[in-house]
Design a protein that fits this description.
Order of helices and strands: EEEEHEHHHHHHHHHH
Strand content: 5-15%
Number of strands: 5
Strand order of the largest sheet: 1-4-2-3-5
Largest sheet: 5 strands, antiparallel
Radius of gyration: 20 Å
Oligomer: single chain
Number of helices: 11
Distance between the termini: 29 Å
Structural class: alpha+beta
Shape: globular
């Protein structure tokens, strides 16, 4: 989760990805969250505040795994309701440090929404379905935490506590792609971030387990349609 910086800022409703509604008495009632700004369906309740959340967009696999619209009930979750109340207070008061405070509160709220989605499971193959299985989740977290390691299915199966064949079968069914393909995509997602920051291509290649910078460049171009060197800032070239 710490691979992507998060920002939350108030915007008009039509530009919002996060909308908080309230009861008639003003009590926060529901969070409606969308990965990308789109017109929200009818909102019969009062809108307490609306904001746009930027957390890496669809390049963040957690965000990309979410359904188009997530509705998160606050009335039975006192902790999340408290977070929303604090966010509303910060937006309204605009005190010193409001941006930092709201971003941190927003990150906790989004994590709680993600956890609720993971606990609910998913009927569609994808990352959320994988994370909802405690055995596969251990393997996925290991991939995320150590993307540069020379992972083999045997290693991941052992972490998951499954036989090799059962692990491969369950991972494909839940996530929708083999472990090696998921690892490759995650490495390239992180590598693109590092390229844009200005890191050297050869250093990035080593960081994510590629045997050579040429091999990394070929994989990068195949995935993103452009050579990594063209994305580096001019000041770093």
């Amino acid at each position: 989760m710490d691979r992507f910086s998060l920002s939350v800022r108030p915007v008009p409703l039509k530009e919002a990805t996060l909308v908080v509604t309230s009861t008639e008495s003003g009590m926060p009632k529901q969070v409606r969250f969308r990965v990308t700004p789109q017109e929200h369906a009818s909102l019969p309740d009062r809108v307490l505040f609306s904001a746009v959340v930027d957390w890496g967009g669809i390049s963040n696999p957690l965000m990309a795994a979410l359904p188009d619209t997530v509705e998160f009930d606050l009335l039975n979750d006192a902790d999340s309701m408290g977070l929303v109340k604090l966010m509303h207070s910060e937006f309204a008061a605009q005190r010193c440090g409001v941006d930092s405070v709201v971003n941190r509160l927003g990150e906790v709220l989004i994590v709680r929404i993600l956890r609720a989605q993971i606990e609910a499971g998913s009927t569609q193959p994808g990352l959320l379905a994988g994370l909802s299985d405690p055995r596969l989740s251990r393997a996925i977290v290991a991939i995320h935490d150590q993307p540069g390691r020379n992972w083999h299915n045997e290693d991941l199966a052992q972490i998951a506590g499954l036989s090799l064949s059962r692990f491969a079968e369950m991972f494909l069914a839940a996530v929708g792609e083999p472990p090696a393909a998921y690892l490759r995509r995650w490495r390239l997602t992180l590598a693109r971030q590092d390229v844009v920051k200005g890191d050297r291509v050869d250093a990035i290649a080593r960081r994510y387990g590629y045997a050579s910078s040429e091999g990394f460049a070929r994989a990068f171009k195949k995935h993103f349609g452009e050579n990594p060197i063209t994305l580096r800032p001019r000041s770093a070239a």
